[in-house]
């Protein structure tokens, strides 16, 4: 078994694709437009996504809905990075918002940081 994707509802598809591709360096893998059902999908991920054994993120824009309440159950998506400090600098330079600067996790030595996407979803960067 393998995790295929995580779906996130987004308020602006172009803004979200730009964030995941230009700020986090993912690739736009494929899109689907369903005008009769009033939604648009875009799949983003690293490399070729599922074809490379990588999980993907499915961005879903429901036509006419531009904002969501994230709720209290959602935590974050985690992404492994080779150097969390340089990753944060690149993200900031690309216009991304770092909400927790790079540094050790409380009570440990693993280096982490947090960034937030345009819809408020948290993404943890973990140095590997």
What does this structure look like?
It is a single chain. With 128 residues, this protein is an alpha/beta fold. The protein folds into 2 domains: 5-62, 2,3-Dihydroxybiphenyl 1,2-Dioxygenase, domain 1; 77-127, Roll (2,3-Dihydroxybiphenyl 1,2-Dioxygenase, domain 1), CATH 3.10.180.10. The protein contains 2 helices and 8 strands, in the order βαββββαβββ. It has helices spanning 13-23, 84-93, and strands at residues 5-9, 27-34, 39-45, 56-62, 77-81, 97-104, 111-116, 122-127. The longest helix has 11 residues, at 13-23. The radius of gyration is 15 Å and the shape is globular. It starts with a strand and ends with a strand.
Number of domains: 2
- What value does the Rg take, in angstroms? 15 Å
Structural class: alpha/beta
Mean pLDDT: 97
What is the makeup of the main sheet?
Answer: 4 strands, mixed
CATH architecture of the largest domain: Roll
Summarize the structure.
16% of the residues lie in helices and 41% in strands. The chain has 128 residues and is an alpha/beta fold.
Keywords:
4-stranded mixed beta sheet, 128 residues, 2,3-Dihydroxybiphenyl 1,2-Dioxygenase, domain 1, 2 domains
Ordered list of secondary-structure elements with their pairings:
Blueprint: E1 5-9, H1 13-23, E2 27-34, E3 39-45, E4 56-62, E5 77-81, H2 84-93, E6 97-104, E7 111-116, E8 122-127
